[in-house]
Design brief:
It is a single chain. By secondary structure, the chain is mainly α. It has two domains: about 80 residues, RNA polymerase sigma factor, region 2, helix turn helix motif (Rna Polymerase Sigma Factor, Chain: A), CATH 1.10.1740.10; about 80 residues, Winged helix-like DNA-binding domain superfamily/Winged helix DNA-binding domain (Arc Repressor Mutant, subunit A, Orthogonal Bundle). The protein has ten helices and no strands. It is elongated. About 5% of the residues have low confidence.
Length: about 180
C-alpha cells in the first residue's frame, strides 16, 4: 500500500479518515457531476463510500491502490444509485459549472485564451466515454490499468480510447487553428 493516510485509517485514526474525506469530497463531487446533475445522489454516494471505508477499515489492508479503490467504489455506488433514479449520462454541462477543467490538465497555464477556447471546443467533440477516460487518466492520474478497471474495459481498449481522444483533440485544434 502506497498511502500512509489509508494505513492510518485502517488502524482507526479518525483524523486521517477526516483528512481523506476532505481530500476526496470535491474530487468525487466534480467526477459525479459528469454522470448526473442530481447533487443528492452524488453526496449520498460520497457518504456511502466513506461510511463503507470506515466500517470495513479492518478488512482493507489488502488494498494496493487506495486512489483506485476509492474511485471505483464511488463510481460503482453512484451508478447504482443513478440506475435507480436517473438515466446515466456523462453530463458535459457540468464542465463550466464546476472545477473539471481538463484543458488545465492537458496543457500548461501558459496557454493563451485563444488556445484555451480552441481546446474547449475540441473537448466538446469527444464522446462521453473518451471524456471520462481522459478525466480519470490525466486529471486524477490513475494508471491505464485502473482506468480500465473502473470503466470495465480491457487495458488495450483504454489505450485505444486514450489514443483516439488525443488524436481527436489534436485534429480539432488544428482544424480550429485554420478557421481562426
Amino acid at each position: 500500500m502506497d498511502n500512509p493516510t489509508f494505513q492510518h485509517i485502517i488502524e482507526g485514526d479518525i483524523d486521517a479518515y477526516s483528512g481523506l474525506y476532505k481530500e476526496y469530497y470535491k474530487r468525487f463531487f466534480n467526477y459525479g457531476r459528469k454522470f448526473t446533475t442530481n447533487i443528492v445522489l452524488i453526496e449520498d454516494s460520497i457518504q456511502e463510500v466513506f461510511l463503507d471505508v470506515w466500517n470495513r477499515r479492518d478488512k482493507l489492508s489488502h488494498v494496493d491502490s487506495p486512489n483506485y479503490y476509492l474511485y471505483s467504489s464511488f463510481r460503482y455506488i453512484l451508478l447504482k444509485k443513478i440506475k435507480q433514479h436517473d438515466k446515466i449520462v456523462f453530463d458535459r454541462s457540468a464542465e463550466e459549472d464546476y472545477e473539471f477543467s481538463i484543458e488545465n490538465v492537458i496543457v500548461s497555464n501558459e496557454l493563451n485564451e485563444e488556445m484555451k477556447t480552441k481546446l474547449q471546443h475540441a473537448i466538446k467533440t469527444l464522446t462521453s466515454r473518451q471524456l471520462e477516460a481522459v478525466f480519470l487518466r490525466f486529471y486524477e492520474n490513475l494508471s491505464y490499468q485502473e482506468v480500465a478497471s473502473i470503466l470495465k474495459i480491457s487495458v488495450k481498449a483504454t489505450y485505444k480510447i486514450m489514443a483516439r481522444s488525443i488524436s481527436a483533440l489534436k485534429e480539432n485544434i488544428m482544424f480550429l487553428s485554420i478557421l481562426f
